[in-house]
Amino acid sequence: MSKYGLHPDALLDLEEIQDFIAKDSPTAARRLIEEIFAKIELAAEFPEMGHYNSDLTERPVRFLHVREYLIAYAEQEGFLWVIAVVHGKRNQRVLAAIFRWRQ
Q1: What is the CATH number of the domain that holds 95?
Q2: What is the pLDDT averaged over residues 39-54?
Q3: Confidence tier at 51 by pLDDT (50, 70, 90)
Q4: pTM for this entry
Q5: Measured between alpha carbons, how far is 18 from 13 in angstroms, rounded to an integer?
Q6: How many degrees, rounded to 5, is the angle at CA 11 between CA 95 and CA 72?
Q7: Which residues pair with residue 73 across a beta bridge?
Q8: Which domain holds residue 59?
C-alpha cells in the first residue's frame, strides 16, 4: 500500500516536466522522474525532512529539492500528499498562487 498520493495537478506537473526534458533526452527525462519519485518515497518514510517556506505559503506544506525542482507536500496521519512538482526558479508569486489553489 502506498504511503503517498499525487494531487491530479502534481501528476500533470510531472508529465509536463518529463515531456519537456524528453524533447532533448528521453533518458534524462526518465532519470529525473525516477529521482523525483525516489525523493517522494523517502519523504513518505521521513515526512519531516522537508522544509517550510512561509514566503510561498502559510499552509503546513513542506518542500524538497530534486535538482532544480521543488516537490511540495503535506503530511497527514502518516500519509504524504504531493501537491506540486515545479521548477524552483519560477516566479515566487506564481509559485505562491499554485500552492494557494491546490488543496
Answers
A1: 3.30.2310.20
A2: 91
A3: confident
A4: 0.87
A5: 9
A6: 40
A7: 62, 82
A8: 4-101
- Residue 15 pLDDT: 97
Strand bridging mode 4-6 / 79-87 = parallel
Q: Per-residue pLDDT averaged across 48-57, rounded?
A: 84
Residues 7-33 as b/e (b if ≥16 CB within 10 A, e otherwise) read beebeebbeebbeebeeeeeeebeebb
Cα distance between residue 95 and residue 35, in whole Å: 21
Q: Where do we find the cell 503546513?
A: 60
Confirm if 73 and 81 have CB atoms less than 8 A apart: yes
Q: What are phi and psi of 6, to 5 degrees?
A: -115, 130
Could you identify the residue written with the cell 521521513?
46
In one letter, which amino acid is 91?
N
Each residue's pLDDT tens digit, 65-98? 999 999 999 998 889 999 999 998 887 788 777 7
Q: Parallel, antiparallel, or unpaired for β 69-76 and 51-52? A: unpaired
